[in-house]
Amino acid sequence: MTAYALEPIAPPSPSPLVYQLRRFFYAVKLVSLHIPFTILRVFLTHPFPFLRPHRGWSLGQHFSYLIVQAASRHTTNWDIAPPRSDAERWSVPAEAGARLRNDLAVKVARIEAADEEYILGQAEHDKVRPGAVPGFWVWKKGSGREGTGPAKDGEKVVLYLHGGGYIAMHALTFPIPTSVARSTAHRVLTVEYRLSLSDSTAWPAALQDALAAYLHLVLPAKAGGLGFSPENVVVAGDSAGANLTSALCLYIAELREVGLEIGFPGSVALISPWVDLTSSFPSTHTNVHTDFLPNMGLNSDAVRSHTRHFPACVASRYFSPALATVPASVFAPLAEAGVNAWIQVAGAEMLRDEGLAYAAKLKEAGMQVELSFLEGEVHDSLVLPLGTRTAMRDLLQAINKLLA
Questions:
Q1: Alpha carbon separation from 198 to 4, 40, 78, 195, 306 (Å, rounded)
Q2: Cα gap 182→192, rounded to integer Å
Q3: For 354-369, b where at least 16 C-beta lie within 10 A, e where not — what string?
Q4: In terms of pTM, does the model score above 0.85?
């Protein structure tokens, strides 16, 4: 097995004042320098396809994706931020409230930590203790599937785990939960799992929180759950959330091995999955000019912070399941349980090759996998404010199919 070496010390969290000053400096630099240069670059090069980062891009794609690239790589979006306050974690962001319009409702619910019997192996670390998790329920008004209460007979539900490199974003930052609830008329639970910003919130905190949310859904009422049948749960995640979805399924298999009979979800939906934290696949380099992601390699702040308690395990099945060193057999329990997978991979994204390798591995394990390959699209394009609507339409069609 290849040895992967990370910087031994996790990046420190800055003080709020230093972080805000840095954000201001980056914002001034972005608006005064990078965005004007990007606009000029697009209009000078777009008439010549061979000069575009991707020959097939329309003018709208060329402009919007390079603007997002400039904003992503020249802001503090991927810097280690100060840990969030409880008020931030338990409240609905303003941008999410605006997406509700008149037809959706959202309510925060307290999800209790998983019992100690479920915290073992990969989910256990002496510096990271399970705790209550903010869960945000989103539903369509008048759908007959409303509120935060127990499952109705045969009811299906979506559990959504957001992306953000394990160091950024809120459970409701992206439009995925609201769009899914609006399109499907099914309830969506999205989890404000702990971000890897400190010793007490780094991995396995995110796994503990995702597990708590899943158990909240599938355990019977007498055990404190809502009583959804596991096969009626669709777990969806984008980018790092897709990585967490994969890890959650592998951890359920680990629990089952020790006699804890937790059922697998019926389906998983993975968008632009980040499934190789070593950045070993070619597209992390060949697609650097078309995608907006920054360096997410071994010594990036995101990877060092996230894996600070397990630096020698970055190539493991929990962090990098797409690697060839991780056998397909680890997913055999999911195949035997009939778990279906839908995976969306973008042709111009840096994570393209690992997403394709991961889909192929699930197929090799015997899982039913539907791969949606979007040529010319970039990483997680369905969440970009200037992105095309192709990826979101694709996701909503898939989720509706999985819930049928």
A1: 22, 40, 15, 8, 9
A2: 20
A3: bbbbbbebbbebebeb
A4: yes
